[in-house]
UniProtKB/TrEMBL annotation:
It comes from Streptomyces inhibens. Residues 11-44 form the Putative zinc-finger domain. Residues 89-144 are annotated as: Disordered. It comes from the Bacteria. This is Mycothiol system anti-sigma-R factor. Residues 97-107 have a biased composition (Basic and acidic residues). It holds the Pfam family zf-HC2.
Amino acid sequence: MSCGEPHEKDCSEVLDHLYEYLDREMPAGECAEFQVHLDECSPCLEKYGLEQAVKKLVKRCCGHDDVPTDLRSKVMGRIDLIRAGETVPEVSVLEQAKQEQAQREQSDAAAAGSQEATGPSEAAAGPSETTGSADARAKAARTE
């Protein structure tokens, strides 16, 4: 895409980096050049406006999905693997994070279930209290 007018920054280069600008991931100096181009070039400005509207729509419609808490670190880990040229696991990062979260929830539920099975008095009493009451019973049996 080009408006046909000469610009310091070419339209194709601007459009290639449009999302960096939209996501505020572009260095400040480049942002200024980018803004100058948008001020001069109505087709690029129109494309920017369209992409900005799409981004807002996606945020409004899809921005409330719950994602696993450690997803960001897993994605960054995968990016590091790719940059280092190492093999990347076949499972998607999101799928892996969901599986791990489900396993944690299952183990938490199992732990809660085992506490209920031992009975509320033993579960509420810490190990020292349970041991202490056993010691008291043994002492009482010896004195009898």
